[in-house]
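User: What would this chain look like folded?
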Amino acid sequence: MKRVYLLTASLLCLTVLFFSCQKETSFESPIKATGALQDDVTGDCLPKVVHGTFKPGTALTDSNYIDVGVLVLTPGTFTITTDTVNNYYFVGTGSFNAPGLSTVRLVGRGTPSVAGLDDFTVSFDSTVCNVSIVVTSANGCGTALGTYTAGAPLTASNTATAQHSYATAGTYTVGTDTVNGYYFNGTVTATAGTPTIINLNGSGTPLAAGTNTFTLKYGDSTTCTFTVTVTGSTTVGEYFYTTANSWWSYDNVPSPPDTLKTTVSGTGSFLGNTYQKFTSVYQNGPTTNDYYRKDVATGSFYRLFDTTGSGYAALGVMFAQRYYDILFLKNVLQNGDTWNNDITITYNSLPATLRLKFTCVSNNMTVTVNGNTFNNVYQISTQALAGIAGTFTPIGGTANAYYCKGIGLIKSSDNSGNPLLKIRNWQVF
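Assistant: Here's the prediction, encoded as structure tokens.
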């Protein structure tokens, strides 16, 4: 019995010792790391580098991650996460062995729902920093943000975003071609070999509803394409705009490589009418002002005809006054429509009438200018005739102007058929 007692006592001691050890271990908790996501001197967020391609409907893998800079104050275990945006997030766990700067990899989880620019908040200890990620279009190119409606000028909310890795560091001009009356452009300063987010501003006015495909040029000889959906009517807008701050830039064809930019810059009062002032600044020439007005009731447009320096004196024409109000365009025209502006003059010393005859040669042309294709174009010809005793004779040739619905003047030619202006870019309001 004594030996049984001793054995039982020994087992009891071992049992007590075992549970005592277990109890002591259970109260030991891992030390949680402390630190910050910012530099302790400048207070700026430490570097965060995004890796991988993000596309809507494609689940993230271990190749989709963010390398996050961390300033470790107290070594220990950590969990660094982001919030969930667009149905995906990032998380990284582990332990820091020593204080100082460290880099933590946060791996992506989830599936992006839609293309766009997603802004995440990274959290560690009591600090936060932001990081942006581009979810590209299905083919991996840029993504347009905002709402696009036919006839509605683009605003600051109409942007495009893309992500690209440049082989050489530097500043690049990035942009698209002009499609359906609008385009995107901007600049970016890139670091070699690092994915760079590119933000582009939209300009112009979509002419018609539909899906538009843009070619994005990164500025380093590489390109890609993305699409934008425009809602609304298939044909919208006016054929001429007098709205404040609208502008158009053109090639000045007779004086290459000269260009000019025309901006609606103010108003002027003439002949009892209020006109909008169109200021044209030439790259290699003077600054000029012209005046136009719209008759809202009829949808007609008038130009202030300044006879000074008009060239008619060389044709034997003398005017009774300097300024005349000339009807040059209507919003609604049919093929073959004509209208006249008759002015009393002296022609070769005889009483006469100067007739400026306008004709709608076509009310639905497709015209290509500087590589851009424009639909819904009016071709308007202008011919000057001198009338004596009711008989009118042409003087000079026939000039032509081409007006696109939703834009305005896109090109013109003089009385001899020589090209004058060819549109480059525009913004109408």
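The first helix runs from residue 2 to 26. If you want, I can go into more detail on any region.
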